[in-house]
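Re: the request from the purification team.
They wanted to know what the chain is likely to look like in 3D before they choose a buffer screen. I agreed to run a prediction and write the result into the notebook, where they can find it.
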Amino acid sequence: MHIYDEKQNRWIRHRDTAEYQRRKRRLRDYWTLGLLATLPFTPGIQITLILLATFVSLAYLDETPYRTG
């Protein structure tokens, strides 16, 4: 997906926006904490939680409108 940046008068990918980069860093921190929190659980529960977290992460990054500023 491309977004028109009026300040620079060009189209940019949504992955190049500051907001996307901020969300990606936030998700990295949540994944680190989440993986540490799943250590006491059995492997079956861990896999289930990881799959759920993957779905939520992808939805959080890709389904939200992004601003260029």
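For the purification team: The helical segments are 18-37, 43-62.
Please add any questions underneath this entry.
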